[in-house]
Amino acid sequence: MGVLTQSLAVDCAPDGTPARLEWNGRQYTIVARPLRWFQRRRWWAEEMRAAKGAGVGLVDHEVWRLQVRLARAGHGAPVQTIDLVHHRDSGRWRLDQVHGHVREAAPTRQSVGAAA
């Protein structure tokens, strides 16, 4: 597991959910339903003073946990779990953490229901 701060390109679905990403020049496919939460920033250590009218993203930032695999490698490629931070003001995405490889993606609600 590693903590990083790399920028990357993310394509989103119309509802804002990450759909595809490019990281280190490689295309990745998202293979399980993304998870989203908001996390407190250490704003008191980072910001001396907020600009008038600025507030979105000042205290909290949006974090997404994704399970991805290399797009060109196919279904046999290992799945990685990564955390991305979305900066809503700028629209930029940053790779925050890479977790270990997993053998298979976690099932989505649709695939769980289909198996029953």
Automatic annotation (TrEMBL):
Protein name, entry field:
Uncharacterized protein
